[in-house]
Structures are given as structure tokens and as C-alpha cells.
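task queued by scheduler; priority normal; single chain, no ligands, no partner chains; default sampling; output format set to C-alpha cells
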Amino acid sequence: MSRRTTLIALLIAGLIAAALGVYAGHRATEPKTPADNAVAAFYGSKLPDANGTPLDLAAFRGQAVVINFWAPWCGPCVEEMPELSALAQEQKAKVKFVGIGIDTAANIQTFLNKVPVTYPIAVAGFGGTELGRQFGNEVGGLPFTVILNAHGEITFRKMGRVHAEELRDALQRT
């Protein structure tokens, strides 16, 4: 083989290897399941709190997090808030909590003035039910609670009122 033919063959082999590397890298980082899509959507969200201050949900990456979808007009949501708030204080060294409010900022702010909460509350509006659906809440009901472990894997999901004891048990397994 001539030197020129060898160079061309090496160049083509290098281009093929580079293309395969780019493809493999893309495949390795793209979400693989609907749950992966939900986790990516969660970490990729920046939602305002009730005062309009942006809350970057990427800040929860790398740690266990309890995500609670709720609304001030939802009776079971209101019932569980004090318990969730107390548990968030109890577990603050091990796990983070975040509430995803499905209502307007004004309604959420009014609620929080009456019922103080110890963890961040993001205002997702009524569109926040879509994120809940991505996590497996097919009916869009509230409350809906999800736990992600530090690797971003869903370890717990519950539709309906959640109790501190069942969350403690789920967090021990996370």
C-alpha cells in the first residue's frame, strides 16, 4: 500500500471512530425511560417561589429529595403539609424537600401566610400537573409525592395523602 493510501485509510478510520464516539456519548446521556425523562425535566426546571424568586431545581441534584405536588384548594394536601414540614426539619441533614404548587402564586402565598412550611415551595401553576404525569401520576390527582435518591432514581411514589411514618420508611430504603 502506498503512503497516501495508508493516510487516507487512517483518516477514514479516525472519522468513523469519532462519529461512533459522538453517537455513543449522545446515547449514554439521553433519558432511557419515561421516569428518566421526568427526573431530567425536574432537574431542568427553574420555577418561581410564591414571592417570584426563581428556584433552580437542579440544586437538588446529587441528594435525596422528596417532591410533593400539592395545591392550597386540595384538602388532603393541606392536611399533610404540617406533617411534611415537621419531617423536612427532622430529616434536613439527610434529605431535601420541595413542594410543587399547582395554583397561582397569589393563592399559594395566601396559603403559606396561614400555614408556614419549612421547605421550598415552587409555583408551577396548573401546568405543573404535567411534571407529575411524567413521574407517573397518570390521573393528575393531588397530592402526589415522589422520592428521588441521590442518583436521581425514583424510589417512592404515592398518589394521595402521605404520612410521615411511611415517608420515613421509604427514606430508610432510599
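post-processing summary
- Residues 34-173 form a domain with the Glutaredoxin fold (CATH 3.40.30.10).
- The longest helix spans residues 3-29.
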